[in-house]
Each structure stands twice: as structure tokens, then as C-alpha cells.
Amino acid sequence: MAEKVLVITPVKDSIDTTLDTARAVAASTVAHHHVIFNDFSTAESRQALEAHQDEIGYELIHLEDLTDHPSPNYKLVLQTAQKMALARNIPFLVVESDVVIRENTIDSLLQVLAKEGNNGLVGSVTVDEKGEVNFPYLKFKGRKEAQIKTQRSLSFCCTLFSLEFLKSYDFTGLDEAKDWYDTFISKKAIELGFENIVLMDSPVWHRPHGSRPWKQLKYKNPLKYYFLKYWKGLDKI
To answer: What is the rounded distance in angstroms from the CA atom of residue 25 to the CA atom of residue 3?
Structure first.
């Protein structure tokens, strides 16, 4: 069966959540190709990713084999994924390593993308284990629409990049000084005339910052978080 989407997952340790993510992607009803980008995890984490690769079924790319740049390497991940998706002539979907999708999540995203319109990014709203909308989509909590066309930033927790958008903007132009690109790329899609959509009726389970545990300081110890963010230059968006 022909692959309909390239799924990518950047990983920095947090192997338990990563393997949950990978198994959920593998259970998708849609033909896909899943690539996990290991972003300088520990040797133990690298071994675990390699040990489960055949069992679950994903391609594994170790970024340390491609660059000396320290983690995070989201720019390189996005650039590599763009090239892979364009070579296959299919869209790509980011499913981050603290997210668990449903069997029909990818199908729901692709169906919206296939509808008339000029869709750039299509994302699934994130929820907690109780099904309540959570970070980073608290701005949409309480909204009743099944789908929301928005000018606001989409998170890449679970977001589909349309093939048309990938052909319109070259990710080699992404700012080297940033760590994360959710806000910039969301705005770029709008700037280029695309529409961005959040699916409120196709939620995914999100364990915030499970892939970057230090960022949980934002809620537990905000003073320390902002010290690391501004004085140490971490988490640049």
C-alpha cells in the first residue's frame, strides 16, 4: 500500500513516552513511514531505540551521525523531513515524543487536508489523560467547534504539514538562533496565504514536556525555568 504521509518524531531520551508514541503511530489505520530522530540521547536510550526498532517498525536516524551541533536540533529535523517528504511527494506529520495519537488521528488530519481550501498546517488539539484540553492548546479550551481556522500559533505536538506548503517554503531559511519553530512556521504559512486549522474533534493525549523534562520547571519552579531560558539561552522560540 502506498504511503500517504511521512511521520516524524524528534527524541531526546524519555524512552518510555517515546515508545508509547511509536506504538500508537504503528497502530494507525493509514499507510505511513515513521522516522524517529534521535537527538543526542544517552547511550542507553540509543540502545533502547535500536532494540525496539524492528519490533515496532520505524526508521531510526541518529542526529549525532549527521551533525556536531548540540541538542536541540529541531531545525535539522525539519529540514531533513522536508527533503524526505518532497522526495516521496507526500505531506509530513510531526508527532512529538510526549504525544499518543489514536488509530484514526492521521486519517482525520489527512481528510481535512484533502478538502477544498488552501490548508497549510492541520493540528490535533491536545488533551490530558482525562480528556481535558491541556497545554499548549489551553487558548482553545471551551471552544465547541469541531474545527477551528486560526491565525494563532499551532503547536507541533501533532501537526500535519501540507505538501503545498512544503513546496512553498524552504526550511533552509529557518533562523539558526532559534530552538523551536512552531510560532514562526505557523505565521509563515499564514503569510504565504495558507490556512491553519486545529481539529477539536480529533484530540491526542499529551504529557507536556515529557520529551524535555527540564521544561516542566515552567510550572514547578518558574524562577529557575526563566533563569535557564534567558540566562542560559535555552528554549529559544
So the answer is: 13
Name the one residue in this structure whose C-alpha cell is 474545527. 147
Question: Is residue 71, in this structure, part of any structural domain at all?
Answer: yes
H or E element, residue 131 = none
Decide if 221 is inside a domain. no
Q: Which of 188, 171, 121 is nearest to 149 (CA)?
A: 121
Note if the pTM is more than 0.85: yes
**Alpha-carbon distance values, 150 to 190, 205, 212 (Å):** 9, 21, 27
- The domain of 57 spans 5-211
Domain at 184, CATH number: 3.90.550.10
Q: Is 76 helix (H, G, I), strand (E, B) or coil?
A: helix
Domain count, the chain: 1
Buried b (16+ CB within 10 A) or exposed e, 106-140: bebbbebbeeeeebbbbbbbbbeeeeebbebbeeb
pLDDT tens-digit map of 169-220? 999 999 988 989 999 999 999 999 999 999 999 999 999 865 455 455 555 5
235 within some domain: no
Inside any domain, residue 102: yes
